[in-house]
Amino acid sequence: MIIGRKQFEMALKLHQSAAVSDLVGRDPQLATVYDVRDVTSEAFPTPWTGEANNRDQNSPPLLRVCPAAFGYGFCGGTVDGYGLFDYFTMGRRQSSVLINLIRDIMGPVTPADQACHGTKQICMNAGRIMWSDIPFMSNTVPTQIMRIGQLFITALPAEMTTMSGRRLVEHLKRTSGFPKNGKVQLNGLSNGYFFYVTTEHEYNGTYYEAGATLYGPNTLAYYAWHLARLMSHLLGTGSQPPLQLQASDANLDKSQRLEQIAGQPNTGYDFAGLTANFGDPLNATRRAYAPGESVQLSFISCNPRNSLALRGHSFVLVERYSERLHRWIVASTDSGLYTRFRWYPQAFFQSVARVTWTIPAGQQPGDYRIRHQGHCRPLMSGMLAADVRPFSGVSGRFRVLPDGLWQPGKSLMEEPGWAQRDSNLQLSLSVSPAAAMTADAASALRFWPSLLLTGTNFCSCMLLNYCFSIGL
């Protein structure tokens, strides 16, 4: 709060006193450059003018950044937000044998690692902690620069201290070919989050920001050197093209495994409940809708990230019954402008998908239904064998009326025969009492409350679900 208030007051003061200038113009030049690479893979020269003369004469001519690691200062917290444990304090330079022992169990710290990070005592070697072949903190960092006329927006996935941001901006302005009246705007927390960036002097203070500077004392120097390289490419004065990760099955598989270990709700396995199935609708539709109205449905669902590897997959299908073909045909998917798909994780591996279809003007009248589909990792079978199973659920049948036919307050009586044109679909009109309830009421009936899933009740739930899964 202290830091935030001071930032707000200064930002407001600068905004109110700022001089107005046109950086865009009538015909602005638009360009962007985006790069993704392993920051530890390259050695680079110091980007600061004259800094080489101030460094130790025995230091190497080229610099490197270190694999990601958190320091003791990070665990100590800040002035307006202390850490969880009193043992860690700001500015601490001494390590602890006990803490280091616990740290090395998760990810051992080699003498080379500690030497690379300098004055920062490592409390978590995040770049070397591997879960399912995925590091706790990646060394692959995205960077981006966008140009709008004379304005250059630099996107970094980190928080910059005031002085580190100032130095970075001034360094980029010295790039060959940079416009005389150009402005550089630094946007942090962009395209990801890799904690803090400090100057080398701030880093040696070993406070919270230094402990959260993941890649060692040369982190700012690397960003300055690398972004200047991207700026040269954007201005046409540099020749090295940016790097980007290519879409591949291996990367998609890594993304799925990352979500399983990320600690977020409902990642890894899915559970529908003891008496429910994946895809079951939790509320019923009306018998008819007019263009401009919205059809809203909730379904028992699974983690949508289970379907990442399937290109062209749609979680929502709006289907219309064709009288000529005597079958359902797809009228819209979740990529349509009028469909909305939202996923809400619940307690104990459960989740709800809420689908909204706003019927556009001119929509072809007829009989419709909404299907929700995806893939799940069933809780019990997933523990025995890591399989992914498709699921699908469908709403009841409803009528879309022609434009201007429906009148507010008019009772919508069932038209003779329209709901019985296909005898195989008559069952869809039989709405159970639970399905006729609101989504929240049905959810309370079908889903186990999180407060009950403790101790003996948790074990009983697991045992009952296993018995159901094997057919006992």
From TrEMBL:
This is Neutral ceramidase. Pfam families: Ceramidase_alk, Ceramidse_alk_C. It comes from Macrostomum lignano. It comes from the Eukaryota. Residues 2-223 form the Neutral/alkaline non-lysosomal ceramidase N-terminal domain. It catalyses: an N-acylsphing-4-enine + H2O = sphing-4-enine + a fatty acid. Residues 257-400 form the Neutral/alkaline non-lysosomal ceramidase C-terminal domain. InterPro entries: Ceramidase_alk, NCDase_C_sf, NEUT/ALK_ceramidase_C, NEUT/ALK_ceramidase_N. Belongs to the neutral ceramidase family. Keywords: Hydrolase, Lipid metabolism, Metal-binding, Sphingolipid metabolism, Zinc.
